[in-house]
Design goal:
The chain is mainly α and 83 residues long. It has 3 helices and no strands.
Length: 83
């Protein structure tokens, strides 16, 4: 039973790390590209109400965060994650 618990624990850690890596390196970059496309469309059509941010950075900016807030937040996140 102890060995099985250790295997489950390690499996959970690997699954969590893979999920975090997917979020950081796949989903967020694609979400930022999608956000930029939406912003371009909104600027061309003048329909700013249709914009819905999907990336973390887009959401932060939409909620009023400035460039410095976003950059400091990104750096703090790197430090917390050990980067």
């Amino acid at each position: 039973p102890e060995g099985l618990c250790a295997v489950r624990f390690v499996g959970g850690m690997v699954k969590g790390a893979a999920s975090a890596a997917f979020e950081m390196f796949v989903y967020q970059p694609l979400a930022m590209v999608y956000d930029l496309g939406q912003i371009g469309y909104a600027l061309i059509t003048g329909d700013l109400e249709s914009f819905t941010p999907y990336s973390d950075i887009g959401l932060a900016a939409w909620n009023g965060a400035g460039t410095i807030d976003i950059l400091v937040g990104m750096r703090l996140n790197q430090v917390i994650q050990g980067g």
